[in-house]
Amino acid sequence: MTGHLLYRSKTSMYHALGYSTMHAMQAAMTFEQQDILSAIATMKEALHTCQRYRKKNSVVESLSSLVSKQGTDQLTEEEMHAEMCYAECLLQKAALMLVQDENMINFLKGGIKIHLPMLCLLYLLSVYSVVYFMYHCCVLQEMGLSMLREGASVHSLRAVLCVLTLLMYQTYITVVLGKIQLFISLNLLFYTEMQIHHLCYWELMWSYIFQQNWLKAYQYADLLCKESRWSQAIYVFQKAAILSMLPEEDVKRMGEDVEAIFRRVEGLKQRFAGKSIPTEKFAVRKARRYNSPNPVKLVLPSLEMMYVWNGFAILGKHAELTERMLITIEQAEAKLNKVQNPTEYQVDDECLVQLLKGLCLKYLHRPLQAELCFNRVVQSERRIRYDHYLVPFTLYEMGLLYKQEGDWNKARRFIETAR
């Protein structure tokens, strides 16, 4: 039977759905990583087969058409079946992604991808009567069990699935349901508590960065690196950035190697829905300086990330902290000015320092000095080699500065140029 399903799965949407569903059921029973990956791969092939029979601009791809221009009356019977098979495969694939591993990015990807096929299947339920099995998967209640029994009583391909699901429910799920519910309740409490802890660690880390208490900030960055998996690339970069603000002898005494930590960042980058996370991409690009045999140290990396996370808007509300931060930035500026043999990063570093200095001066209501710093960045545009983001962001900050001073024409012009 399996061989027949495999043979027809390349040309028949129902054979493709049946073959992939068997793999999904195996994965659900074993929870083995290899079975889950195999089932996901089979689902992708089934989706490709179903796609051949679907109408262009189909129901699943345009949910707005469900309530406006396109209804199921515009679909042939074959196209309607293709929509259901396609949505069913999508739902099973998304469900498998939820349990693929404990990585939160994959969990979110699965959750987002489940939403669309569920909506489509629930709509198709109202106009097409043979979706008992999938509706049960969407809404597991007494109504779902009733519809499973009804689905099992009719002569259709899904009748077997309905019978198997009822059998599993009666012989297995009901026996362990109480234990599962208790397990899930306790784990949700534990998970929520841990996430709240990690959120608190993140906020405490930034609070200590604003105060320039680098040792305390490091302790919370280190905790995030050890305990949280939300974005290891960011946490590791933050840890290294904070350590780079401490005297080298303190770092050595703590048993840390800043360069080695920065080199770990690139290998920790994640992808979400096929795309890299912008802040992680930024951290990876900055950390690449340390991949060289003769690495060039980043200048004020912790303050640069503070700007990326919009931290200066918070810092700027506290004049005393902003004054202290300005002193730190001016010390970095003086150090750069004394460099005897400039590296290829010299201009980029100088411009970064001028942007950060200008921000502090802006929040300290010293607009003429802030404008001077910002202009130095803009005038260096052609000499910047790597951090090209500095110029548009500086133009934007200049626009905000002019807005703060009431010069609306200049503000609009600079913000438009930045855009």
UniProtKB/TrEMBL annotation:
Q: Does the keyword Transcription regulation apply?
A: no
UniProtKB keywords: Lipid metabolism, Membrane, Repeat, TPR repeat, Transmembrane, Transmembrane helix
For this protein, the parts annotated as crossing the membrane are: 114-135, 155-177
One Gene Ontology term from the biological process aspect of the record: lipid metabolic process
Q: Which InterPro entries does UniProt cross-reference here?
A: IML2/TPR_39 (IPR019412), TPR-like_helical_dom_sf (IPR011990)
The similarity comment for this entry is: Belongs to the TTC39 family.
PANTHER family named among the record's database cross-references: TETRATRICOPEPTIDE REPEAT PROTEIN 39 FAMILY MEMBER (PTHR31859), TETRATRICOPEPTIDE REPEAT PROTEIN 39B (PTHR31859:SF4)
- The molecule here is called Tetratricopeptide repeat protein 39B
What species does this protein belong to? Callorhinchus milii
